[in-house]
Design a protein that fits this description.
The chain is α/β, with parallel strands linked by helices. Helices cover 60% and strands 6% of the residues. It has 18 helices and 6 strands. Strands 3-2-1-4-5-6 form a 6-stranded parallel beta sheet. Helix 17 links the parallel strand 4 and strand 5.
Length: 463
């Protein structure tokens, strides 16, 4: 194909990518945005295959068959509750593909002694290998934490930051060597090796509750690795797509950090602000916690006109989203207004609660953001909290010495009555007690999230 036509199609694909991002910005247009992005990628792939620089299609066809088979298998077998793990793996695969493609292009250029100017090629290759390796191994660690294969808690040790800095310098040193001596192509794998260890070192200090930030950041890394590989290959579509993914991932990372009132450095080091020594759990809870039965909660629903459901990680773990939908439908059949208040960092990936509720086919207009939900809590009769802790802890609003001081929370404590479904009074990621659980207007309904909601459904039907 003529280069001008190739670039024209790449430009069209880029426009579709931009429109896709616009569509993905809102749940109502997310499906259309996803389709536009897929169409743009299809155009980019087709025109690349028609490019005369493709040597043979046998290996490409084999890759398509294997990739499509693995993708179809994952799509069928992976549950929506495991979507954070899936996203982590996809980020890692993107980074791994980038570093392998860049390495192959470097070897090909060295053998042919032609093509892209060596400085441009080697600099882009080093960037692709470094970022791609960090993304691949960091994503595997994130997957392991989310899947429970390795401890979910932050893993920190003395000298961790200097060790990571040293690994980064080693990777950059190998990269400088390759740029200075492009013939030493084996040095590229030194960059990859050092960056691989660095990727592990960067993610192990991140605790499970901070995974939304880690997932967003790794997504940005995968985009930047793809953009660097685009420079290696001279592929404009890859440069544009990678840049868009990288930029959107960085913006999303910033949004996640802001939602927790923490800096990115604080998240990456697994640190929670020490704050002042607050009251112990015994001081907060002793003699104040009121346990409720399903029948008692059902009686509250009998007189309620407005109910706000606040899903948290406990809903995801117990896979209670379908039971929650059934409860919401049951309450609405009794002319009770039901909404869902979503905290941006609830769960283990950006939009985790939105994904689960969408799977259960809960209408988008019932999902309220933190900014939309908070003004309505004072007019809410019952706030039903399912497996959430830190994101509803009023200490963030009332105690400036708390580790979570200033963190935007859902103001469920301002509802007339709060019902909290939780296994126990154990603290959240911040490690502090939650006065909400002992508040005068709070009832604790202890138990597994899904079973507790099913018990509520049965009790409401009998009331």
């Amino acid at each position: 194909m003529p280069p001008a036509l190739i670039n024209l199609v790449y430009l069209l694909a880029a426009v579709l990518f931009i429109l896709a991002l616009r569509g993905l910005a809102h749940p109502r247009t997310a499906v259309r945005g996803n389709l536009l992005g897929a169409l743009g990628m299809l155009l980019a792939i087709v025109v690349t295959l028609l490019d005369r620089r493709i040597v043979g299609f046998e290996v490409i066809l084999a890759g398509l068959v294997v990739g499509a088979g693995v993708g179809a298998l994952l799509a069928v077998r992976i549950q929506m509750t495991a979507m954070p793990q899936m996203v982590a793996l996809l980020n890692g695969f993107g980074g791994g593909a980038s570093l392998l493609v860049a390495g192959a292009a470097l070897l090909e250029a060295a053998a042919a002694e032609a093509g892209v100017p060596l400085v441009q090629l080697t600099v882009a290759t080093v960037a692709s290998g470094l970022i791609g390796a960090v993304t691949f191994w960091g994503s595997l660690v994130a997957f392991g934490k989310l899947q429970g294969l390795i401890p979910e808690q932050a893993v920190v040790f003395p000298g961790q930051l200097p060790a990571n800095a040293a690994l980064g310098l080693v990777a950059l040193g190998f990269g400088a060597w390759l740029v200075a001596d492009p013939a030493a192509t084996g040095v590229y794998w030194g960059v990859v090796a050092a960056a691989s260890v660095l990727g592990v070192g960067l993610v192990i200090p991140i605790g499970g509750a901070d995974m939304p930030v880690a997932i967003a950041l790794l997504n940005a890394y995968s985009g930047l690795a793809a953009a660097a590989t685009g420079f290696v290959l001279g592929n404009n579509a890859l440069i544009i797509a990678g840049s868009l993914v990288g930029a959107s991932g960085i913006i999303l990372t910033r949004i996640m950090c802001k939602a927790m009132n923490r800096s990115l450095a604080n998240v990456l080091t697994g640190a929670i602000a020490a704050g002042q020594a607050g009251p112990s759990a015994d001081q907060v809870y002793a003699g104040r916690v009121k346990a409720a039965t399903a029948e008692e909660v059902a009686m509250l629903f009998d007189t309620a006109r407005r109910v706000a459901i606040v899903p948290g990680y406990g809903m995801a773990v117990s896979q209670a989203q379908y039971a929650v939908r059934d409860l919401a439908n049951l309450l609405e059949s009794r002319e009770i207004e039901v909404t869902f208040a979503i905290h941006p960092v609830a769960g283990r990936m950006p939009g985790h609660m939105n994904v689960l509720l969408a799977e259960a086919q809960i209408p988008y207009d019932k999902l309220k953001t933190l900014e939309e939900a908070n003004p309505a809590f004072e007019q809410t009769d019952v706030a039903l909290v399912i497996g959430a802790n830190d994101v509803v802890n009023p200490v963030a609003r009332t105690d400036p010495g708390s580790p979570i001081a200033g963190m935007p929370i859902l103001d469920v404590d301002r509802a007339r009555t709060v019902v909290v479904i939780k296994r126990s009074l154990s603290p959240g990621f911040a490690g502090i007690p939650n006065p909400l659980f002992a508040a005068d207007n709070t009832l604790m309904f202890f138990g597994d999230g899904k079973q507790a909601v099913l018990d509520l459904i049965a009790a409401v039907k009998e009331s």
